[in-house]
Structure formats: structure tokens, C-alpha cells
Amino acid sequence: MPLGRIIIGPLTDRFGAPVTACGTMVLVGTFAIISAFTQTYEVFIAARIVASLAGITFVIGIQHVAEWFEEANLGLAEGIYAGIGNAGAGIGAYFTLPRIFGDGWSGPIFSTNWRAAFFYTGALAILVGLAYLVIGDAAKSAEKRQATKQGVTFSQWLHVATRYGAIVLASAYIMTFGLELAMNGWLGTYYREGFNEGDLVIAATFASTFSVAAGLLRPIGGYVSDVFKRKEIDLIARFEGRHREQWTFLALLFVVTAMLGMTVAGLSGQITAAVVAAFVVGMSCAFSEGAIFAQVPSMFPDNSGSVTGIVGGIGTVGGVVYPLVFAAPFLPNLHVGYAVVAITMLPIVALAAWVFQPHVAEHAKTRGIVTVGDQETTTASADD
Description:
By secondary structure, the protein is an all-alpha fold. The protein is built from 19 helices and no strands.
């Protein structure tokens, strides 16, 4: 999925969200249906890998929202899209599908519930994709569509991928969305092993509070970014005049602080404190993710798909790396891992502190770490 996100970004800029969304949904739906009919493990796994590309629609949606909403409301609009989308995924996986296709399923075509679930959701994905193509418009105006699709080349993609703005936002997404992925997969185990909570249902319920916070509160992060921009709020003198950057930086500090709080709560031995602390971590992730994706289309209005793909793809790295730290055998206990992860986030916060300075941030979308063709760039030393 990370590579898929990186690839689909510039394709969405070039061809528009309705085209790429339709193509993705039809592909995903087709292989979901294929997986319903499979008789061998190898074919099933191959079909499910292709079907997992459904996750790249996040990039398509972020780009499409950016093509329709004005800069002043981008944060809230992107936050609502991403937040409700994440919540929908959780509702479908844990509530809707198990109830529709439960143990007593005996419907048409399939008598096996899991095969029926793959078939009908695949068919629905195809219908949604086709409807998206027929009904959707790629942008609010022909001028906006033209500005976005022109110049979508590998050279242009490499240019935006190596700008300071894209680099810092992708790094920040590692420590926010990457952390969200890691915590979603880890917290159930943490509550069972760290507090001897033997009831799997209770442990999963505790873990779900993090997911609720991380998903549903994301619109708040985007909305606050909009407010900082509209009201020109300056809370950090070092970043004076860079209003969205100030909120993003505060949100990143919140993530680090919340992770340290997880260790403190865990060491207290009180599972209730740990559940509350995890909710706060989820809140910090939501605020940061909302802030980041308020900045992406604001900073790169004509390359929002390409940059979203880069940020969204690279951001998943944290979901792989952080669980290795949480479960590292050399740690004295399971609670210390959160503090260790918090410390590893400090270089990203330091990078943000440098890029968000007014004299650097002003050129963050045009200057970067390498020179690409005749694009306006500079090296890091030019801004020192």
C-alpha cells in the first residue's frame, strides 16, 4: 500500500479523482470477488494483496477535496473526509460486516459467510467506482483542473518529493499516522500482557478507545489549523507569520508529550490510567494528522495528489518500526517502549522547528535537498 499511495498521487493529479477512483475501486472490487471464489491458499493471498489497494483511495480523496475547497477551509474539509473515512473502516470491520455476514449466514450465491462478504463488498466497490466516474467532477473549475494536471512528470514528482515542505510533512506523518497504525495493532496485546488482562474482549474494548480518538477527532486538528490561518494567530514567536505551521508544531509536541504520558501511566500499574493515556495519544495523533493534511494542499495547491501520496506512503513506515520498539526484548518492561519512541520522534520535531521558520517556510515548496532539472531549488546550506 505505501508504494501504491506514492504512485496513485501523481496519477490523480494527471487524470482526476473520478478516473483514478473508478479504476481503483473496479480493480479492488474485481479481486475481492475473485477471492470469494478461490480454492487455493496461494490464489487467495494474491487476490487479497491486490484488494488491499483499497487503502490508496485515501490519497485520491485528499486530492479531490483539495480541488474543491478554498484554502481557508481546507483543514476542516480534509479532516472530515479522513476522520469519517477512518471511522467507517472501523465500523465496517468490527460492527457492520460481522453482523451482516455472521455465523448464521445462508444467503444467495454463497452459504459460507466469509466468501459472501468478499463477493458482495467487491460488487459494491465496483458500483461505487462506476458511480464516482459518472457523477464526480475532478475540480471546481476548468482552470483548477488545468493547473493541477499540467506538468505531471517524473521530474516534477521528484521535484516536489524533495522539497523541504514535503520532507517535513512526510516525516511528521511517520510519527503521527505511523504511530496510529502501530498503536492500533499493539494496544490489545499491551493491555493483556502489561496488566494481565486475560479477557480478550475487554482488552480489545480498551484498545478501541484509542481508535475512536484517532479517527473521529481528526476534523478538530484540521479546523484549528484553519482558525490559526484565518485569524492569523501567532503563539510561537520563532514561527511568526507561519500560522498553520505553528499549530502543526504544537500538535507534534503534543504527540511526544502524550507518549511520555503513556509510559508514566503504565508504570503506575493502573490500567484505567493507561486507557485514558492511550485516548490522549489518539487525540494527539488526530490533531497532528488534521494539521498535516491542512498544510499539504495549502502548501502544494497544484500538486496535492503527488504530495499526499508521498506523505501518506512514507507515513506508514512508523506502523512497521514502532511496534518493534514497543516489543523490544531489551526493554525492562512493556511500558518503557512508549518513552523510547517519544525520544526517537525528537529529530522530526527538530526538523519541523527548522523548516517552519519564516525564512525557510516561505520557500519550503520550491527549495529542497536536490536540484531537479531547471526547477527553482537550492541546497540546505542556502537557507542556513
